[in-house]
Amino acid sequence: MLNLLGIDKVVFAGVSALEKAAFRTATISFLIVVAMSIMANGYFGHSLYGTWWAVILFAVFMGFVQFSILRIALITLMTKSLAQETPVVLTPLAADSKVKVFLARFSNVKFRIASVFRVLFVGMIAICIAFPLGSFVMNDSSRRIQQEYKLELNERFKDQLSQSQLKHDVQQANFPFHVYNELLNEKRFQFLILIIVCIVFVPLILVARLRYNSSFEYLEKSRMKMLELVAIDYDETIEQSQYYLNKDFPNNKKDLKDLSVYADAPINSIYKEERKYSKGDKTAFNQFIQSI
Prior knowledge:
The chain is mainly alpha-helical. The chain has two domains: 2-138 and 186-214, no CATH class; 226-291, no CATH class. The chain is built from 14 helices and two strands. It has helices spanning 9-12, 17-49, 52-79, 92-95, 98-107, 113-137, 139-156, 164-172, 176-183, 187-212, 218-248, 267-270, 275-278, 282-291; strands spanning 83-85, 109-111. It has a two-stranded antiparallel ribbon. Helix 3 runs antiparallel to helix 6. The longest helix has 33 residues, at 17-49.
């Protein structure tokens, strides 16, 4: 279940019980939102076409699309925070006021462009879930509004609907967006929309809170593990390179581990960008190694 947030089980096993409970809460809230998405999209398919195949198709396809976007938003939030906060130096007098501390910290927060798009996409999904789901909760009112609208159309276009086929088409048609527009006039529906949108944002808020909680260990432990993997991969690369270097150039006396140029990141931008070393034969490579 924790894989939904891209959590490494090995790293997760080493964190505190409180932190484990917090991550599980975030995951459960995400699963609740996914269930709401499937239900809302299934009902939307039914409100459009009134058939079971539409319910299944919309629930599976649109539910999967929304699930994927929400999951990506949460996983990327684990590595990139919503905003970057610069340190704030407060005078002793200002530090005594909680309001001044909050305003000073908020003024130094720089929101990332990617975070704006992340919140925007989650908000769009929240709206797409809220209207059909709110309509489903108020199913009796939805049916009544739609039936009244069909009767109104029959009365308004009764001359044009003299043909039996046209009359049948109107009677079988569904008008979900008209239903939403009418339901928006009711306080209960407005309250439902607000509650559902807030619920959809709960996983994002919880993960963001975990991301900013300095007492939680998972992010730091995960970062250290990635550094260990990079170090292991680096050592393996150097060993394999040394093996092929000694094999193809028996006269080579250089030990790659002792070459400081390979232990420094600028090798990627200095040497690899030089055209004469980007491509070449064994002799050119040997000459390059000997010249270091």
